[in-house]
Specification:
Blueprint lengths: L2 H7 L10 H9 L3 E2 L1 E3 L2 E3 L6 E5 L6 E6 L3 H20 L1 H18 L1 H12 L3 H29 L3 E3 L2 E5 L5 H14 L3 E5 L6 H12 L7 E3 L4 H9 L5 E5 L2 H11 L5 E5 L4 E5 L5 H12 L10 E7 L3 H12 L20 H16 L3 E4 L14 E4 L6 H4 L6 E7 L2 H8 L7 E5 L3 H7 L7 E4 L18 E2 L4 H6 L2 E3 L6 E2 L26 E3 L2 E3 L6 E5 L5 E6 L3 H13 L2 H4 L2 H16 L2 H12 L3 H22 L5 E3 L5 E9 L2 E5 L5 H14 L3 E5 L6 H4 L1 H6 L8 E3 L4 H10 L5 E4 L3 H10 L6 E4 L3 E2 L5 H4 L2 H7 E9 L3
Parallel strand pairs: 1-5, 7-8, 7-10, 8-9, 10-11, 12-13, 12-17, 13-16, 15-16, 17-18, 18-34, 28-29, 28-31, 29-30, 31-32
Antiparallel strand pairs: 2-3, 4-5, 6-20, 11-19, 14-15, 21-33, 22-23, 24-25, 26-27, 27-34
Helix pairs in contact: 4-6, 5-6, 5-8, 6-7, 11-12, 20-22, 21-22, 22-23, 23-29, 26-27
The structure holds NADPH dihydro-nicotinamide-adenine-dinucleotide phosphate.
Length: 794
């Protein structure tokens, strides 16, 4: 046959990679592995192992330890002992260790690439060219953050011992994403890899010890989901960082609620791949190949929903189907294949059954006629055409090489379809008109948007989801903050609630009664009566009856959420505009200083000097957030490609805020102002004991041009209102500053839509201390970062 023939048919022989070194490593361990605890392999306490298989052949690869409570205990103990020494080593010391880990990965790159391909079933081409180099880049990049930590994160301290749970789709890369930032800033780690793919983590741990990583800094406990759950529940863990399914993410949110453990969740997705009619069609077809057939489609941010503008749909389908025919599926170690094996029979079954459902629900199925190996878990590249947006396959994450396609007519329709999912991990936008692409990107509910590109990742660029794709970011500066906590919050004391005063008669003599001023609720810019028509009395610390406020209920919260939702224009208002309104609020509050001072004295019993200081601090705080409104900006990342990634600070959306009893005016403003400065809309529950300073703000809000619905205030009992807000699926985030129980309830009940929570666990802040209660310390929680990748050049 001639070269021209091969060129035409693209048929070429296998190009197998040698696996001798990887097999020799397995043999060195007799293919039986313990956990890696305190710098060495440790046999499981209960002596139990499970078998891990090779997806491409179905053959046994090794036996891996099944972690028990005692194993988790030993690993957490080792990490706990190592943590203070690791933190004390300082940024430069840790930078040197992380650099050594990066170099170790580079030196053993081929061993890792081969082992990963055998264990997971993914093509060597991908492990060699993406997983391993990117893992090394993560350690190198984070060696840099360790080096700079003492300068760049001076007001932060490490969290302590981190429990990390990772999935099977990118075992080594997920390990790197998780442990590099955690170790860089002084935490130690207990990692639980996925049961299907534990081997690269064990190899990594072994080689880390060889390059001098101190014992206990990195511990690996293998096992199934029950081992993961043991780690989640262990009281010696300060934070759980999880990547995996939304279902397990919810369980973990529930299990950690109220425990004080930090949590980040990187969950599933159903990411749109939007092609406009002016796109480079051939480029976009290649993009689809990368979006959904990379890593067998077992990618959380896979572009699994193809949205095509109607005019080009048929042309696109033809070219895509033709391209599918050239894709090769085969053994992972063959360097000339495009797709390897699906990770396990159970995953293969899931893919098959979802495709069947898709066809039953009306989709037209195209599958590449590529030959599949006889044994092992293989599935061909698949396109489901003409899929209805409400079809199961358009909604459920398939986590396999299956693309579902639908069409749209206008850019608005594209945005609507793209956002028609409970997820929000990533999106690709294809158009040759940069104005159109950059107009669409901010409208997409996704943590990452790629313009004319897909599946780009870098250690310096944050990755993470909106909505039910989880919260928290991995990579870059924003990822570092997930492994630190503010120094100023370290010594908070538990809040002690003074006993409720006993009410005294308020008018014993024949005096003129005061004109009734029962505060209503403030919803949608109007003062409205509470739905239940109940009020609660407000007493001074000595029991004097000061007035009454409305008792808000479920219906009032529902109305407030609807009002906040319809005030969406606030999110799009310019930062300059929001700043002006915050200054205007400060101006109008200052005009009524004396009145607020008297109110604070009467309700809290503090001296007028202290009350005056609280009002002055509140005015200053409004000024601060007027200042921050157009200064807490995103940044431009420079990933190693020709292009940029714009890290945009976007508002979280509709946020519930429960305010504490101490410093009732200042705390209210300290919590509401950063949220509105960043474009969020708020449903605020004022201090339960001292709500009158907040209800007095109605008139200040009314006279300061705050658009209706931006700030809604519902008075009443915290326990019930926090519960209603937590369970409301149209509330995007919930901040709770109050009792320990309210914090726990907020975390536990927020799993419906996995809202972002910021809670104080009943620990008191000094609201006058700017370091503890003003600026980025809260602004960071008032935004979510969207990274928009814009490659340029040819
Ligand atoms: P899981 O979410 O079940 O697993 C992820 C990790 O969590 C694994 O290490 C797993 O252990 C562990 N785990 C499982 N149950 C618990 C628990 N109760 N507490 C703590 N840890 C637990 O994902 P699967 O691997 O089962 O895949 C199921 C589906 O999830 C896929 O079909 C896909 O749709 C989605 N998925 C999404 C990923 C993403 O990156 N977004 C990644 C992987 C899967 P073990 O492996 O031993 O079960």
């Amino acid at each position: 046959m001639s070269v021209a023939h091969y060129y035409e048919t693209m048929e070429y022989g296998p190009a197998p990679e040698a696996d001798g070194e990887a097999r020799a490593w397995l043999k060195k361990h007799d293919a039986v592995f313990g956990h890696f605890i305190g710098g060495e392999f440790a046999a499981p306490h209960a002596g139990k192992h499970f078998t891990t298989l090779e997806p491409a052949t179905g053959k046994t690869l090794a036996k891996v330890a099944q972690g028990s409570v005692a194993d988790v205990e030993a690993a957490v103990g080792a990490a706990r002992r190592a943590q203070p020494l690791w933190a004390r080593l300082g940024g430069h010391g840790r930078a040197r260790h992380l650099y050594a880990l990066a170099r170790m990965l580079q030196r053993h790159a081929r061993l890792f690439a081969v082992l990963e391909a055998i264990d997971n079933g993914k093509p060597l081409r991908e492990t060699r060219d993406l997983d391993v180099p990117l893992a090394a880049r993560h350690f190198l990049h984070h060696a840099g953050w360790a080096q700079l930590q003492e300068r760049e994160f001076v007001d932060q301290v490490p969290l302590g011992v981190i429990g990390q749970i990772i999935p099977w789709n990118f075992p080594l890369l997920m390990l790197a994403w998780k442990i590099a930032p955690a170790l860089a800033v002084g935490n130690t780690v207990v990692l639980k890899p996925a049961e299907f793919t534990s081997l690269s983590a064990l190899l990594f741990a072994e080689l880390s010890a060889q390059v001098g990583l101190p014992p206990g800094v990195l511990n690996v406990v293998t096992g199934d989901g029950t081992t993961g759950a043991m780690l989640v529940e262990h009281p010696g863990i300060d934070k759980i960082a999880f990547t995996g399914s939304t279902e397990v993410g919810r369980l973990i949110r529930q299990a950690t609620a109220g425990s004080g453990k930090s949590l980040t969740l990187e969950l599933g997705g159903k990411s749109p791949f939007i092609v406009f009619d002016d796109a480079d069609i051939d480029g976009a077809v290649e993009g689809v190949v990368d979006a959904i057939w990379f890593n067998q489609g077992e990618v959380c941010c896979a572009g699994s929903r193809l949205l095509l503008q109607e005019g080009i749909a048929e042309t696109f389908r033809k070219r895509l189907v033709r391209r599918m025919e050239t894709l090769r599926v085969g053994p992972p170690l063959d360097k000339s294949i495009d797709m390897g094996a699906v990770v396990a029979p159970i995953q293969l079954e899931r893919i098959k059954s979802l495709v069947e459902i898709g066809v039953k629900e009306g989709a037209q199925k195209y599958q590449a006629a590529t030959a599949l190996p006889q044994e092992g878990c293989f599935y061909p590249p698949t396109l489901l055409w003409n899929v209805h947006p409400s079809s199961t396959v358009a909604i459920e994450e398939i986590f396999g090489p299956v693309l579902v396609a639908m069409t749209f007519r206008t850019p608005d329709e594209a945005v609507m379809l793209a956002n028609n999912t409970r997820y929000g991990l990533a999106a690709s936008v294809w158009s040759e008109t940069i104005e159109l692409a950059l107009d669409i990107a901010p409208k997409l509910m996704a943590g990452v948007v790629w313009i004319n590109a897909t599946n780009l990742f870098d250690a310096g660029v944050g990755f993470g989801g909106y909505r039910e794709s989880g919260f928290g970011r991995e990579g870059g500066r924003e990822g570092i903050y997930e492994y630190l906590k503010p120094k100023a919050w370290s010594d908070r004391k538990p809040r002690v609630k003074p006993p409720m005063p006993i009410g005294s008669d308020h008018n014993s003599a024949f005096e003129l009664p005061p004109i009734d001023r029962t505060a209503k609720l403030f919803i949608g810019g109007k003062q409205v009566r509470p739905d239940g028509n109940y009020v609660r009395a407000v007493l001074s610390p000595k029991g004097k009856h000061l007035g009454e406020v409305g008792e808000g209920n479920r219906k009032d919260i529902r109305n407030a959420v609807a009002a906040a939702r319809s005030a969406e224009a606030w999110a799009k208002a310019t930062a300059h505009n929001r700043a002006q309104i915050l200054y205007y609020l400060a101006e109008n509050l200052s005009a009524r200083c004396d009145e607020f001072e008297a109110r604070v004295v009467a309700t809290t019993g503090v001296t007028s000097v202290k009350a005056r200081a609280e009002v002055a601090a509140s005015i200053e705080r409004l000024f601060s957030y007027g200042a921050w409104a157009d200064k807490y900006e995103g940044t431009v990342h420079l990933p190693p490609l020709r292009g940029v990634a714009l890290a945009m600070h976007e508002p979280v959306g509709v946020v519930g805020v429960a305010c504490p009893d101490e410093a009732p005016l200042l705390a209210f403003i300290s919590l509401v102002a950063p949220l509105i400065a960043m474009g969020n809309r708020v449903i605020a529950i004022p201090s339960e004991r001292h709500p009158l300073a907040a209800t007095d703000l109605y008139q200040v809000l009314e006279t300061s041009d705050v658009p209706p619905g931006v700030v809604n205030i519902v008075t009443g009992g915290h326990d019930s209102l926090v519960k209603i807000l937590a369970e409301h699926d149209d509330v995007d985030a919930l901040w709770v500053f109050g009792s320990k129980e309210a914090s726990a309830a907020a975390e536990k009940l927020s799993i419906g839509n996995l809202k972002r929570t910021l809670v104080d666990h009943g620990l008191m802040l000094d609201w006058h201390d700017k370091a503890a209660s003003e600026g980025p310390i809260l602004l960071r929680h008032a935004v979510q970062v969207k990274n928009i990748w814009i490659p340029y050049g040819d």
